[in-house]
Design a protein that fits this description.
Radius of gyration: 37 Å
Strand content: 35-45%
Number of strands: 45
Distance between the termini: 85 Å
Helix content: under 10%
Number of helices: 1
Number of domains: 5
Length: about 475
């Protein structure tokens, strides 16, 4: 082929590269925008026919569009923390039409370019507000200074919109004090927000705002003020439920810090405690379940009190409290006391019911009705078998003196015991298997009226290889 060309409507453009399956051509410039039919010739005269009969054939139609006209950009400044929504208002964003004349849904892209021509933060999808308004989110950056905004639709041709913004080192939040509070804020707690670049534009501090955002994106805005020490202060807003929110500040209501610094709403409410039966040795790890728990980082505030009849117990002449460990916003862990250490009203707790009460940020311990009990260690006196095959699901029966009476109540064991057999390898310390155990009356299957359980049973697990193992029984898991 000696004269290979591509025609766009009435405009001919030379081929820059070609193969058996691909032709590359630099299209444009042209004087008139709009759709044009693309045709190819190998001799400079005869072009392939347009197969379209009624509508534009998308396979050989190319559209030259007019440059977008952006008349306004707001705001004209964005912080290097990123996240500032930049509103572009102008014309010709709606120039692409369907066959029936309606506006096509186009996916516009935007990017920000520094004064050296380097792209900041990559390309971003634009969000349409209307036919004349789109939003582009400013990226996070280490660069500050005049910044060009470019827009693109076809994946190649970026257009400088001619309206620059300035990237500047805006407010940067590093800490919120206190980092937690109660949902209703009955005491009107004031939050103290620390950070960098806390400067009021032109000395006008009347537009300071603080934003609280939850994981769904819902936001609360409150007014802030500059303190004499250079921090921002605001009233902790009320919130309907315990949750952790991010805190951001703005000095103009448009640019926000976006530093993902957290503030937690704590309103601890206990729904359950596991286990409900605790060993008198004081080595039981209690899992307290509910909601409104948060990691405060302050041991003085992160405490659980052991109480009887809604009043704190004593341990060594002091309130019986322990620091708890936060596992999640719905679960904390705390260790129990030795039974001999706990007292109330001048006498040992014995086997009286207790509750664990979590301290709220106001320093009060919230009561609940989830009772826990010390139990007297039952005595396992006899075991039905001394061996089992490694692939055998063998039943084991243990004779047990449950110490029924004042110490151990059958009803409590029936409702709260977590009977478990534990099989531990002597060769491999990490090889530990558990099986559920069941409390019953001997002989197994008997129907003795008013007889209390005197044995437990469990089954051996499948084991890897023959060996001697250690077998333990637990009454609370």
């Amino acid at each position: 082929m000696c004269d290979f060309k591509v025609r766009f409507g009435q405009y001919n453009f030379p081929v820059t590269n070609a193969s058996d399956t691909l032709v590359e051509v630099m299209a444009g410039p042209v004087k008139i925008a709009g759709a044009s039919v693309v045709a190819i010739t190998g001799n400079g005269q005869q072009y392939n026919d347009d197969v379209t009969l009624h509508f534009r054939d998308t396979s050989n139609t190319y559209i030259f569009h007019q440059p977008w006209i952006v008349e306004d950009v707001q705001p004209s400044m964005a912080t290097i923390s990123g996240g500032t929504p930049i509103h572009l208002t102008g014309m010709l964003f709606d120039q692409f039409k369907n066959h029936n004349g309606t506006t096509k849904d186009m996916q516009y892209m935007c990017r920000f370019v520094d004064d050296t021509g380097k792209v900041i933060g990559g390309e971003k999808n634009m969000t349409q507000v209307s036919d004349i308004e789109y939003i582009c989110i400013a990226p996070k950056s280490t660069y500050s200074g005049p910044t060009v905004i470019e827009v693109m639709e076809n994946g190649q041709d970026w257009q400088d919109i001619g309206r620059n913004i300035t990237m500047y080192a805006g407010p940067h939040v590093t800490h919120v004090s206190p980092p937690y509070g109660v949902t209703k804020n009955p005491k009107g707690t004031i939050l103290d927000i620390s950070g960098d670049n806390f400067q009021c534009p032109g000395g006008d501090c009347s537009k300071i705002r603080v934003r609280f955002t939850n994981y769904k994106g819902d936001q609360i805005f409150v007014s802030g003020k500059m303190s004499s020490s250079g921090t921002i202060q605001c009233v902790e807003p009320e919130y309907p439920s315990p949750e952790t929110l991010t805190v951001d500040v703005s000095f103009n209501g448009l640019d926000w810090s976006n530093d993902n610094v957290n503030f937690s709403y704590i309103d601890p409410f206990v729904l359950g405690v596991k286990p409900r039966l605790i060993s008198p040795r004081g080595d039981t790890k209690l899992i307290v379940e509910g909601f409104g728990f948060a990691h405060t980082g302050d041991d003085e505030k992160q405490q659980i009190a052991f109480a009887h009849d809604y009043k704190p117990c004593q341990a060594g002449g002091k309130p019986a409290t322990k620091v708890y460990k936060v596992l999640s916003e719905m679960q904390v862990q705390v260790e129990s006391f030795d039974q001999n250490e706990l007292s109330y009203g001048g006498k040992n707790i014995g086997f009286e019911p207790m509750t664990v009460q979590i301290r709220n940020p106001d320093g009060e311990y919230d009561p609940n009705d989830i009772y826990i009990y010390y139990y007297k260690e039952p005595a396992v006196t006899k075991q039905s078998a001394e061996f089992a095959y490694i692939n055998e699901d063998k039943m084991l029966i243990f004779n047990v003196d449950f110490q029924w009476g004042e110490a151990n109540h059958h009803d409590f064991f029936r409702d709260y015991a977590n009977l478990t057999c534990r099989f531990s390898s002597a060769k491999n310390g990490s090889m530990i298997l558990y099986s559920d155990a069941f409390m019953e009356t001997s002989p197994m299957g008997s129907m003795k009226l008013k007889a209390l359980p005197d044995q437990i049973r469990c089954r051996t697990p499948i084991w890897e290889s023959p060996e001697q193992i250690k077998l333990d029984v637990s009454f609370n898991g």
